[in-house]
Amino acid sequence: MIDFKFYTEKITRYIYLQPEITVSIEKIAKKFHSLTRDELYSILEEMEKNNFIESSPKSAIKFQTVGSIDDDGNYTKIEDEKIESLVSATHVSLTLKGKENAEEQHTLILKARKELITKPIINSLISGLIGMILGYIIRLLQ
Question: Is the pTM of this model over 0.70?
Answer without folding.
Answer: no
